[in-house]
Amino acid sequence: MIKEYRTISEIVSPLMMIKGVEGVTYDELAELELPNGEVRHCKVLEVDGDTAVVQLFENAAGINLSRSKVRFLGHPLELAVSADMLGRVFTGMGTPRDGGPEILAEARMDINGLPMNPAARDYPNEFIQTGISTIDGLNTLVRGQKLPIFSGSGLPHAQLAAQIARQAKVLGDEAANFAVVFAAIGITFEEAEFFVQEFNRTGAIDRTVLFTNLADDPAVERIATPRMALTAAEYLAFERDMHVLVILTDITNYAEALREVSAAKKEVPGRRGYPGYLYTDLATMYERAGRRIGKPGSITMIPILTMPEDDKTHPIPDLTGYITEGQIILSRDLYRKGVNPPVDVLPSLSRLKDKGIGKGKTREDHADTMNQLFSAYSRGKEAKELMTILGESALTPTDLQFARFADEFEKRYVSQGPEENRSIEETLTIGWELLKILPTSELKRIRTEYIEKYLPRD
Q: 410 near 381, Cβ under 8 Å?
C-alpha cells in the first residue's frame, strides 16, 4: 500500500526535505500533490534514517508545506517504450510534444539502464556512413563507438548534428534496420523548431526518436533527458535488433544543470565548481553505447559539447575525452574562412577508425589515402606558415605544391554544403583528385598498386 506523507519540513528549490519516511530508497520516484489537486513529480536523492531529500522535476512555486502531501511510488523514473516511438517528438521527460497520442507501452524501462558487462561487449568494427568527408574519410565512425564533437559558442554544431542525423546510415543489407535517437538538451525554442522542421522536411523523422529539453525547463529535467534518449536507444537496439545512432547536444548544458543541482545540495565543488563525480556521471551515460555479444543491434553515440571559451582543458571536454574513443574538433578559424562544416582535421581523432575501414567495409585503398591526406595537409599547413613568415620566394616548388594542396583540401574536401551527402566512394575519389596536385614521388604512404589503380590520369 502506498503511504502519503504530510511531513515536508523544508524546500530549497529544487530540493525538498521530508521527515518520518519508511522504506524509501535512492532514486525512487515520488508524487507531490498540492492542496488544489495539482500533481508534481520528484525523485529521491538521499535517505538519512527517516529523512528523505527529494529533487523536484517542476518548480517549487505554490507549495504549501503543511497541506501538501507526498507519495513514494516504489520504482525509479521509467520510460514507456515501443516501436511506435519512431517518428515522434517528446519532451525531456518522455511525454509527447508533437500533439500525438501517448505511447502504448510494450515495456517500461528504468531510465538509468543496466551497466553493460565488459565481458559481454563486442568490439566495434563496422562502418557507419555519415555523408561527411572529414568523418567518413579521416575520422571514421564505427558501430558501437562513442565519438564526441567538440564545438564552441557560435559554431554550426546544430547544423552539423542535424546533417549527421539526416544522412547517417549503415551500408549493405542492414540499411533498413537503422534508427536515430536525437536528444536536444537545454536548447532554445528556435533551435528545437529547427530540428523538428529539418527532420520533417527531409523525411528523416520517420526513423528518428526526438527528445527536446528547452532552456526554460527545470534543471532536473535536463539531467533526465539524455538518459531518456539512451533508454529508448537500448530498447530499439537490444530488443528490436536495430542499429541506433544517438546524438546528444549539448552536453555542456547537461553539466551546467548537474552543477546547479550539486550547489543546491551544498556539495563540496570540484574543478571549476562542477561536482567531483562529474567524470563518473558522464561515464554512466557514455558507457551505455556499444555492442553486446549475441545481440545483432548496436548503439553508436555522438555527444556534442560547446567548450567554454574554446578551452579543450575545461573539465567537460577534458573528462569526455578520457571516456570516449576520440573527438571531432570544430575550428573557429576555418569557420571565419567560410569552410562548413569547419572540422579541424589535424587534432581530430577516431581511435577506432582502423577497425571500420578497408576491403569489404569501405574500400581497399581507404587506410593508405587517409594517412597520405593527413600527412600532406599537415605539411601544407607548415608550408603556409613559413610563407607567412619568410615570403613565398623562400619556399621550394614542392613546398608551394603542398601549400596549394592545403588550400584545395579545405575548399573541396573539408567544406561541403549542408545538403551534400557524399558516399564513401565520392569521398575517396575527391581525396585522390586532391593528391594529384602533388608529385607522385611524394605519395610515400600509399602502396604503388593503389596509385596505379586509383590516381586519376590526365
A: no
The residues near 207 (Cβ < 8 Å, ≥ 6 apart) are: 86, 87, 178, 179, 180
Condensed to tens digits (0 to 9), the pLDDT of residues 360-395 reads: 889 999 999 999 999 999 999 999 998 888 888 888
For residues 314-337, one letter each, b for 16 or more C-beta atoms within 10 angstroms of the residue's C-beta and e for the rest, the string is bbbbebbbebbbbbbbbbeebbee
Q: Give the rounded distance of the alpha carbon of 13 from its chain centre.
A: 29
Distance CA 154, CA 159 (A): 11
SS3 assignment, position 249: strand
pTM of the model: 0.91
Lowest mean pLDDT among 259-268, 377-386, 443-452: 259-268
298 backbone dihedrals φ, ψ, rounded to 5°? -155, 155
Give the count of beta carbons closer than 10 Å to the beta carbon of residue 349: 16
* Cα radius of gyration (the chain): 25
Contact 117, 292 (CB under 8 A): no
Using the structure block, give the residue that is written with the C-alpha cell 539531467: 223
| Alpha carbon distance 77, 111 (integer Å) | 6
